[in-house]
Amino acid sequence: MVHFKVDFEYFNSFADITLSLAKTLFQFGVPVSIEPSKLSRDAIKVIDSEEKEMLEYWMKQSPSELFQLKWSHYWQTTRDIKLQGHVNLELFAINYEFARNDQPDDDWIASTRNNSYHKLAVSHYCKQILLQAGCSESEVSVLPLAANPILLKSSPLEVQVNSKKSPEIKRFLHLTNSWDLYRFGTDVFLPLFCEEFQGNPRVMLIIKDGGSNNPTLAKMIESLSAKYGRKMPSIYILRRLLNKSDLAKLYLLSDVLVAPFRGEGFAIKILDAFAAGLPVIMPLYGGPTEYANPSNCYPIEYDLVPLGNCYDTQYFKPQNSPHWAEPNRESLRQQLHRVLEDENQALVRQNAKKTAQQFSWENSAKKLLALMRKLC
């Protein structure tokens, strides 16, 4: 039996990933339990009735004393959760690396290194950061995450969506969060998109904003609209939460994903674009290098720079000179045009889709089960 000490009162990526992993283990016949908590309104909006029943059932089960699992994070409520299993596992994701290791670590990294839990890094990038912080090789394993199962299957949904797409309009998709626009590179991409495609009626930008109650993005677009007036490219902001089916439709309706991020620990949203067969414009940096390479995406050049004014630095102070990627604006500009004109785009899309097939929740669950048998 596997017990997840994960809070579902806030339906963030931790809860979403936990649900996918728990469901898959359960389908394999593994008894699952989840720490009781109230289901948030956001959770109820995006999970289906079957998943709701599963969560309520798992929360009523007695916690396993054999395997227990939690997330590592600088949020104190997450960081301070104690595991009490025979084998204790801690999922770890981070969006940046450290340029030094000769200073005292911040509380998050120090507590992660010093606890006795076996670390499950979501990418080799994240594993290297743990090793640099002083964790031993035997204490860290890599457990890659997975793409949306709907996008990994050839389904009538894809045929249905493709029949509605207009070939005259090229839809660029950008996923961001108004609480952390800087990390996702929205501050770089949005002005550049408007500059490059001003007055072009055949291009549309769809922005999926996870920070639905934050007005920052709307203010950015208002400012750009005042600058470009009637030449402002068509931009549509999608603020509401989407379930897995609606997310799949969003990707399938799009033609290009633009992800000029500064830091990512894994980035399921980019892997989902791969699964949908989208050409992706992105820096080959961080966790996404677990699956991305020059043959299956359109790389943006970047420089390593100190961590900027992001969500993490607003809530705590990372030590040892954290660094991440600064996307090169000229390189991004070139790739925005290249992706529309590239005669090899079909091959890039095919390679991306083929790569994504290797990252299913079934594969992740099998790796976890094999590791648990080894550790036990």
Give a description of the structure:
It is a single chain. The chain is of the alpha/beta class. The chain has two domains: 2-146 and 361-375, Rossmann fold (3-Layer(aba) Sandwich); 149-356, Glycogen Phosphorylase B (Rossmann fold, 3-Layer(aba) Sandwich). The protein contains 16 helices and 15 strands. The chain has helices at 13-27, 41-46, 49-58, 76-79, 107-114, 124-132, 149-152, 156-164, 186-197, 216-228, 244-253, 268-275, 311-315, 329-341, 345-356, 361-375; strands spanning 2-4, 32-34, 67-71, 87-92, 97-98, 118-121, 140-142, 170-176, 203-209, 234-238, 256-258, 280-283, 298-300, 302-306, 322-327. The protein has a six-stranded parallel sheet. The protein has a six-stranded parallel sheet with strand order 10-9-8-11-12-13, with helices on both faces. Helix 9 crosses helix 14 (329-341) and helix 12 (268-275) packs across helix 15. It starts with a strand and ends with a helix. The mean pLDDT is 95.
